[in-house]
Amino acid sequence: MNRQQQRDAVRAALAATPRERGTVPQERAGFEIFGTSRPLAAGVSADDTTLGGWPAVRLRAGASPAVLLYLHGGGYVVGSARTGARLASALIARTGGTAYSLDYRLAPEHPFPAAADDALAAYRELLETTDAGDILIAGDSAGGGLAVMTLIAARDAGLPQPAAAAVFSPWTDLTLSGDSIRTRAAADPLFTEDALRWYADHFTPDPAAARAASPIFADLSGLAPLLVQVGADELLLDDALRLATRAAAADVEVTLEAGPGLPHVYQLNFGDLDDADDALDRAGAFLSRRLPAVVDAG
């Protein structure tokens, strides 16, 4: 298939998923099946461990000292270390080293700031054995927003920043104020505004928490170099655009990539979507260039 046919196939598969939310257990079960149904990147081994006091999947791809902390998507309500392992494996296969996909606590049982506390605890533990210059952070969707929150929390705690961070379709505004939530409604094959609000209400049940959990409203100065990748056909387009703009205004080194005709976290479709493989190649190169010794990103 050519690229357009690949994009059409991905959009059709996403459009076939139910857009109405079920119960939290139903949503978690369905997302777990979806997130673990495809294999890890070739050449990456996986085993279970703990990090920061919580379960994690450890993924190994060579002897590089690079360590990646990966934060999964799922609206802070669904998802797990296992559902995040696929994208984590794709990144660590390109940088070499070891990745940890973290099983941070989920809402509504554990609303904001539980996930942020868990991610910071994981980063603290990595710093006990790894130089900050060898650490990378990445995440998708809610995990992308959480990755930026982790950078902010680390700075505020007086901890060194990691070498770099990469976020895919980051959810950075839980107040849902981005224009694209309305203007991209017809283009997005996966989400509706009501679906985003369902997740937001579970994680941040009041306006003050929603704003506090939204990195675009935070001081972004002093953060690590940041790569932001987003699909142009998704409700969260403005979350990514505003994050990149505000980071640049705060003198953060930031690279923004908006993929035309592409949906939310399209990178998950690596191996089937050339756009996804190319985006991950660029992400791997971005992260590798900021490590102390340049690692072949393939």
TrEMBL record:
<feature type="active site">
    <location>
        <position position="141"/>
    </location>
</feature>
<protein>
    <submittedName>
        <fullName>Alpha/beta hydrolase</fullName>
    </submittedName>
</protein>
<dbReference type="InterPro" id="IPR013094">
    <property type="entry name" value="AB_hydrolase_3"/>
</dbReference>
<feature type="domain" description="Alpha/beta hydrolase fold-3">
    <location>
        <begin position="68"/>
        <end position="267"/>
    </location>
</feature>
<dbReference type="Pfam" id="PF07859">
    <property type="entry name" value="Abhydrolase_3"/>
</dbReference>
<comment type="similarity">
    <text>Belongs to the 'GDXG' lipolytic enzyme family.</text>
</comment>
<dbReference type="InterPro" id="IPR033140">
    <property type="entry name" value="Lipase_GDXG_put_SER_AS"/>
</dbReference>
<dbReference type="InterPro" id="IPR050300">
    <property type="entry name" value="GDXG_lipolytic_enzyme"/>
</dbReference>
<dbReference type="InterPro" id="IPR029058">
    <property type="entry name" value="AB_hydrolase_fold"/>
</dbReference>
<keyword id="KW-0378">Hydrolase</keyword>
<dbReference type="GO" id="GO:0004806">
    <property type="term" value="F:triacylglycerol lipase activity"/>
</dbReference>
